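ingest -> validate -> predict -> emit
validate: passed (alphabet ok, no gaps, 106 aa)
predict: started
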Amino acid sequence: MEIFLEIHWLILELLPDIVHSINCKDGKMGYGARTYSYNGWGMAVLAANKNWVSIMFMKGVDLEDPEGLLEGTEKKMRHIKLKSMEQFKGLRNKLERFIVEASGVN
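emit:
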């Protein structure tokens, strides 16, 4: 859960005015709008799983990803799974770039 909070604080640090809300049923945190889809939904979703935390970019296919870090086969959404604090620390600069870029994709 520490990773979830670190990513949450990173998003708020980079985008201090971003609207965010938590879905009380599934615990997912949405950023950029009041619900979790695009074109009325949002920029990203943060989800905690048992063994990892995923940050899902709603228009991830439109983000520059020369290293191929973004995963997924959805039409638009792509995600990154973070399984340890060490992985988060190693990817922090790249996550910052994805977050800032995703905030301007809509």
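The two ends are 29 Å apart (CA to CA).
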